[in-house]
Write a structure and sequence with these properties.
Structural class: alpha+beta
Distance between the termini: 14 Å
Strand content: 15-25%
CATH topology of the largest domain: Alpha-Beta Plaits
Largest sheet: 4 strands, antiparallel
Number of helices: 5
Strand order of the largest sheet: 2-3-1-4
Radius of gyration: 20 Å
Number of strands: 4
CATH architecture of the largest domain: 2-Layer Sandwich
Amino acid sequence: MTGYMELPELDEIDMALVRATQAGLPISPTPYSDIGLGIGLGPDEVEQRLQRMLDIGVIRRIGLIPNHYKLGYRANGMSVWDIDDHAVDQMGEQIGALDFVSHCYRRPRHLPDWPFNMFAMVHGTSRDVVEARVAEIRHQLGDVVRSHRILYSRRILKKTGLRWRTSGERKCCD
């Protein structure tokens, strides 16, 4: 199957940990303790096992997946930028560090239709707020910008955490 990889050996404790975290980590000051209580592990072992699964590629990342709409951010704009290739890495780090940019990354151009090589996601309570923030980015980028656009989200994409996939043979999880 495309998109899957063979898993390294996981023991029953690892499997219990995967099942315990499929719906996400508990919203708690002590998530590792809370998970561990349910499967008989201490918080340090939960953290060590999750780190091991990250290190060997079973888990891609552990991170926060905010629901921007529930937080009051109704305008979500992906700003796309056509900037000089020699400046993308430096500018990407600078723009990615802004507190109103949730993520910033480089993408290949697809000329002639898609000249944009840097993307920066901006969330705001309104389109006016997003547009003002994108104007700030434009100002910071200066002369390296040739053009840009804002692509607004039209729907919420479902974001999920780790899911164990079974089909007779052990495959990797998301």
